[in-house]
Amino acid sequence: MSFATSSAGHAKAFIIARVLTGARRFPIPVYVAAFFTAFFLVAGMAPKLLQTHDPLALGLMSPLKAPSRAHWLGTDQSGRDLYSRIVAGTGQSLSIGLGATALSLAIALILGVTAGLSGGWIDNVLSRLFDALFALPTLFLALLFVSLLGTSVSTLIIAVGIGTSPGYARMVRVQVLRVKATGYVEAAKALGHLPKDILFKHILPNAISPLATMFTLGIGQAIIWASGLSFLGLGVAPPSSEWGALLNAGRNYVIYAWWLEVMPGIAIAAFALSVTVLGQYVQQRLERRIELP
Amino acid sequence: MNVTYPAASFRQDATLPPVSSPLLTVQNLNVSFGPAHSRRAVVKGVSLTVEEGRCVAIVGESGSGKSVTARTLVGLTGARSHVQADLLTFQGKNIDRLGDEEWRALRGKHIGFVLQDALVSLDPLRPVGKEIGETLLVHRAIRTRADLTERVVDLLKLVGVPEPAVKARQLPHELSGGQRQRALIATAIALDPALLIADEPTTALDVTIQAQILDLLSETRERGKAMILISHNLAVVSQMADEVIVMRHGEIVEHGSAEQIFGDPRHDYTRGLLKAIPSVRSRGSRLSSSKAPRFISAEGEEVRELTQSDIAQRSRPLLEAERVVKRFRGPDGKLRTVVNDVSFSLGHGETLGIVGESGSGKTTVARMALALEMPDEGEVTLQGAPWTAATEKERRHRRSDISVIYQDPLSSFDPRWTIERVIDDALARRRGDPLDRTSRQSEVSELLDLVGLSPSFRTRRPLELSGGQRQRVAIARAIAPRPRIIVCDEPVAALDVSIQAQILDLLGDLKSHLRVSYLFISHDLGVVHHLSDRVLVMNHGEAVEAGGADEVFLRPRQPYTRKLVAAVPQLHFQAA
Fold it and tell me: How far apart are CA B133 and CA B148, in angstroms?
């Protein structure tokens, strides 16, 4: 369907044009969120650009220094610059966040769509599986995978990805069921379209678009879960400066050096919040076109 | 001289005999909504008077301001409204600038208000008896609990709810639509108000229930109460009203006695409204003022001489249902027979109307004709070949022979798609060689033109269109695959009478132009009679009566059909 794709392309160009022309009227939180997101993306991809010190260079003369002009966010027990370490750890944290969410959504989509479309005993079996997994705490599931697979970045991605998937899978299933019952799916069937065309043209796009916000929320959540595992010593190990690992390393010194816990914590919160704000904003802009005011 | 002596009765003593003192006087009423810089006027300069024991009807289409006018009279226009009137008096008292507290004292006790949708207007978690009792308690008309129960049951009995003592303890959803509407009327008349305002009181109801509710309202009037009846249904109005106000775009276009409005309408708009009502008399004529469109002769291939085999084929029905039965499992787990032993056939170029009240199974019949629902017994054949008995795989390529127009077109369009994509998607299902992109684009424009929409609609989305425009797009989509049969399931039920007239005219034009057959489903006997060659009357899943449209509607043989035909409100006064 060359025509359909060109129309979709047109729609995309239309959205981009709308977003650009609306640039002056963005709400302030969106600007702030965009700034932080951009900062962390650069830090993740090219940490050297933003670092003020070598994140691994020991500073024997300056351990546990409070934030100052020389060390913006202070130093750790080995005198390493905390700001540079947070920047250096961004890449790992972000890839865990994005990777785990992507994995989680992929699992959720496959299982949720299968359950929603097939109905009958397949739906029953899958739904009970989601319920069973959902009943277990995410952290517990993640712990299980870490203990099976050992500790590394990829293990964290798998552990958090699988651990958070049942919740998404249930949502995907409900969305698929909702769209499946709409008049336009029936109209497409009455026109004699193939089930696969109906699936890709109507059911998937309409079922997934409400989940876009969930994806952005999920990135922040996944980073928090990964940090939690690292904090428990089950994630990425020192000298890596993944944000959770930083929190873990700093907890022994928190009485003398509050910044060792607060600063990585702020980084996690700032990134999770920013992505969520952006995601919700984009979602609203898109939905305004197709939903009743 | 007493200073608090009401000014209105002062004037009345001086000039008029006391009997004709108006109960309600409205002069130059203006209502607008929104903030000061972008205020939208909804009611513009409306004046009316209601005298005791009289019924004034306000008719108009959606957006005419009739409901807002009614709501102003009970102080329910909301915080964002600006109400302004030269004079607004009720029982001689000024009600122009009342506070919430004062309105509450007036509403229910002196002015009763009946809303359109009883299911929405009644609290879903409260037994209907409590809801009615609430009015009595709030206004301190009843003090003891025993009295209250007795009074509520009396009221339900008065409005004709069967088993009132049982129904009083039930929740709104446990009552039927008609019973709910009765309960709502019971709430409104609980305190015997002097004025009853009914806003579309019968719109969501079946004709037989509508007739009962209208009888109930007439009884209330005969007890000497004044009434303001808001409706878009001119026939309903002609049965009830002494005086009629026709509104359009917030203004009164015509105001007169019922005899004058219905017998000798002066304004073009009123005349158009009266002419737009489909009925037996309108058969074969156009309902709207639009002219029959000039059809482009691009459909050349369709216009060909009839060959012998064509004629042979034409003698066979296109679509045939053989004793179909459909059962559904209800929420209680019991099997209910929704369609029982229904047979019909639809010939070439014919329109078969299926009428019935809600729950009669007519939509299930339509879905079986489309093979979207499979009969439990019997079968449907399309062009002589098995249809519901075939597999979906065999059916798929034949689906372009039969298409559908729904009551609610909006939900039948993917909200993300433009109109162009919606129609193009249906074009892709047309039989024969696939069209290339340019010819598809020109075909979309042609189809839009055929249904009376300009090409600028291509890039619009369903949500941006009005109800009538959406239904036109739905028709364009339905005819795009060049079907032989179009199943129309209540295609005009959600539309205003003038828009309904346009859509019915369009369907009529397309029928002769495209040589399609219609399976036309509606609860509106007038609509079915206007368009159908033959009709099938359904009740509780069974085919009650079938035959030619005139035969069934003018000389009904079965008691149910007679009851149905008798329940349809007729225009009382006929235009000369």
Answer: 6
Distance CA(B327)–CA(B373), nearest Å, equals 11
Q: Give residue-wise pLDDT tens across range B517-559.
A: 999 999 888 899 999 999 999 998 999 999 999 999 999 999 9
CATH: 3.10.120.10, 3.40.50.11890, 3.40.50.10090, 3.40.50.300. Which one for B311-567?
Answer: 3.40.50.300
pLDDT in tens, B345-393: 999 889 999 998 888 889 899 999 999 999 999 999 999 899 999 999 9
d(CA A273, CA A281): 12
Are A191 and B463 an interchain contact pair (Cβ–Cβ within 8 Å)? no
Q: What mean pLDDT is predicted for residues A192-219?
A: 86
Condensed to tens digits (0 to 9), the pLDDT of residues B67-100 reads 889 888 888 887 788 888 888 888 888 887 788 8
- Name the residue in chain B with its Cα closest to that of A203: B414
Chain A residue numbers touching B461 (CB-CB < 8 A) = 289-290
CB neighbours of residue B255 within 10 Å: 18
The token pair that represents B416 in the structure block: 């993300």
Q: Are strands B195-199 and B226-231 parallel, antiparallel or unpaired?
A: parallel
The A residues from 153 to 182 touching B (CB cutoff 8 Å) are 182
Judge residue B51's burial from the number of C-beta atoms within 10 Å of its C-beta, 0-12 exposed, 13-18 middle, 19 or more buried.
Answer: middle
The CATH architecture of the domain made up of B1-98+228-275 is 3-Layer(aba) Sandwich (3.40)
- CA of B466 to nearest chain A CA: how many angstroms apart? 13
Total beta-carbon pairs less than 8 A apart between chain A and chain B: 72
**Nearest CB to A190: which of B403, B411, B461?**
B403
